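pinging the channel bc i need a second pair of eyes. not urgent but kinda urgent?? the chain im working w is below, pasted from the shared doc
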Amino acid sequence: MAYRNDLKQLEFDLASATGPLVRLFDVETSHKMGILAAKLGFFPRETRPDPPSLRTTVWGREFPNPLGVAAGFDKDAEVVEPLLGLGFGFVEVGSITPLPQPGNPKPRAFRLPEFGAVINRYGFNSEGLDAARERLAAFRRRQAEQGAAFPGGMLGVNLGKNKTSEDAAADYSTGVTKLGEFADYLVINISSPNTPGLRSLQGRQELETLVRSVKQTRDGMKWDARGPPPLLVKIAPDLTEADMSDIASVALEQGVDGLIVSNTTITRPGAIAEHPLGKETGGLSGRPLFEMATEVLREMYTLTGGRLPIVGVGGVSSGADAYAKIRAGASLVELYSAFAFEGPRLVPRVKRELAALLEKDGFASVADAVGTDHRQKAAASVASAMAAAAK
């Protein structure tokens, strides 16, 4: 079976061995070093096949496995190919804003290693659509030229708005116009806590207007035989029940193709609140986010009746975490913070563990396991009702 402990695995382990040294630097410098390492070819390339159980089809697109890189790592679409080469099933670049912007003042990212967590307030630092368009066009050219020799996997493009923009719909629509042709799916990111007013777009009326406008732009463009890329909305974990109900209703009514659940949280759960860095403003990611994000995922799956594919993200650092997201209703799973802490060897480990859990529970594929917790809960409720009626 794939991912055995061989020379290829040694490549991944060695590539991760520099992690402690890199993390002696601040978060943002470490991140830039990681991007540079990928550019210079220091990331290993996965040649071992994924287990067949990990292959999955979502939106009519075939993913070699359900594990992806969340937006935020490759903000400007600089290293898509090396990331896919690590064995990720997909890479989501961004958030990319229409015009270049520097983001918030530094320092703006803080590492809490004892919690496996990061707090950031980057604020959509972006080189803009034109720079990303040039890189993604080159990426697609290389893919066409190399064919089967090119790393497999899908490309998601996460779109943001400029901080000073007063017309969010225009910003997102411009992103669709300039980058849509390169994307296997598109994301409207309205959930970052670091751009003033952005999360207010999650309100029912604001979301309806935004989705309608962006979807109209996408549907008015010319596409190949596959049709337009699916349009997803990325939401926050800090939502009330009413918020989630409104988002689910709008997503279904307006024909959104999927949801990404979730972005970082502005809360500081447990001991994070007492940590010296806990009072830094920004979004918290990593292990402490897992339970909150998974609970929102579970609720959104219920509210949408399982009719919308969901990308589960937030606190994933193991195959068990990925499996929990899938059972809660995720068709695909993303990670970022754990990758920053552990390095390339995390990728084959998570896939190996996930494949083992699927096999253990008798699932032939990821798709078979999606939403299992809900089905089991429903079956238990029916059995309980029948037992009560029989008394």
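so DSSP finds 14 helices and 13 strands in the chain. and The two ends are 50 Å apart (CA to CA). — does that match what u expected or am i reading it wrong
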